[in-house]
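Notebook entry, structure prediction.
Reason for the run: the old model in the group folder had no record of what sequence produced it. Starting over properly, with the input documented here first.
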Amino acid sequence: MTSGPELAGKVAIVTGGASGLGRGMVELFVEEGANVVIADVNHDGGEALAAQLGDAAAFKPTDVTDAQQIQALVDFAVERFGGLHIMCNNAGVGGSFKRFLDDDFDDFDRVMAVNIFGVMVGIQRAARHMADHGGGAIINTTSIGGINAGAGVMAYRATKAAVIHVTRSTAVELAALGIRVNCIAPAHIPTAINAAMDQSLIVRAMQPLQRVGSPRDVANAALFLASERAAQITGIVMPVDGGTTAGAKPIPIKELLASPSNPTPK
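New structure, fully documented this time:
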């Protein structure tokens, strides 16, 4: 059992922290006693969130496609709050929703730069500091699109699968330094990145657990992985998906047998 705030005395960075899943992590980490640096390209959103949360939060404009900006972000966290114990590489973009045969791959480089390059450099620069200061926890945001195969958004799916393999590989390499690396795979959580789709309809059709998740659900998973409760956990992928990656939602036999020529059995 823990007592008091779970992250008291800890310093965290959350990339993509101004909105969506990242904002959920920032808010919960602050509630649990951490000082948090919000990193984002959304200046207005980042500054507003930092102002709302007070002295425990600070905003640092950061484009994760630029390694120098990621290094500056780590340096800022150390200078502002005295260290870095938790790195959440959460920033991501969705890319084109075109089907594969129609995709011109115009956004390929950008999706790769944000979703995988930004994560790899984020792990590296945080780990360089953590290696000399007693270790730490690194949490990467992947997606069930990196676990389950599916149609469309191929560049996005490729990057999210890459995040999983990079997470596992760096977990092995960095374990001797006391650095844990894990990732979270959300699904069907309403955020700006999937605003074009009604997540409640997707949940109804695909998700075994008939509940629409929220950014707080993902933040709770991140809190666990960042905390001492996960001291023996590294290299895992934690789906926060209502059971979607466990298997398809069961279809009642009556629906399977029903057809215009074969009325639903009574």
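Summary: The mean pLDDT is 92.
The old model has been moved to the deprecated folder.
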